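Meet my pick.
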Amino acid sequence: MLPPITAFQGAEHAPFLMQGGKAAALMVHGFPGTPADIRPLADCLSALDWTVQGILLPGFGVEIETLPKRTHKEWSAAVREALQALQKDHAPVLLVGHSMGGALVMGVAAETPADGLILSAPFSKIENILWGMMPVFRALFPEVRPFRLIRLDFSKPEVREGIRNFMPDADLDDPQVQHAIRDLRLPITVFEQIRQVGQRAFNLAPQLKMPAFILQGTEDTLVKPHLTRQLVSRYGGAVRYLEVPAEHSLIDPRAAYWSQVENALREFVEQFR
């Protein structure tokens, strides 16, 4: 049996605003994350005197229990409103997104252009036959077991850390707890919203003309490198593309490759100053 879900209570998961100069960046986290996931990129930009804002998407963080009632249109609206508010007093303004957040900012940028994009493991789809059949399944099956779609390795620190955001009291070494988590059922409507976000980003990529910096982990089994390369090939503007030896949680200042990411990011944003 699973322990109760007590999700994302720490202050690190809350929205943030780091005041800096006129240049600004809006940070958008992925699924099922919070602003904490993307904070290291915010720190890099803040050190360069950028104003940096990290938003919490509707239905995430402390609102996670409301997620099944949320739609991708609500998420896009939250990004768009925050972008427009930043653009009133700042220029240039960049959109920064990780995973599903990367797909969201691509969709928003097609309607409300930013000056540039920074995308970390931008999501487009999951390479699984069940993923493509999601619209059909939605009418037949009310729930899905997401951890059957991806490999969940309880020996990996990032996996354990992510689960503890939801269930801080879970004994992740207990085989029964591991089985219960792998068998966890979530409303299929949530994943249908994510699927639509990814499909929209993929479809709109050729329309995006602003410069982009795209970061991808070579060992990512969720957003696979060849899918990101395909997205890059469709992108309509100039792209600075960097692959690093990392999995999906690649925004990690402790990693040996992080100085390479910082240098590439610094070079990319310099063109806007």
User: Anything to note?
Assistant: Confidence is low (pLDDT under 50) at residues 136-142. The radius of gyration is 18 Å.
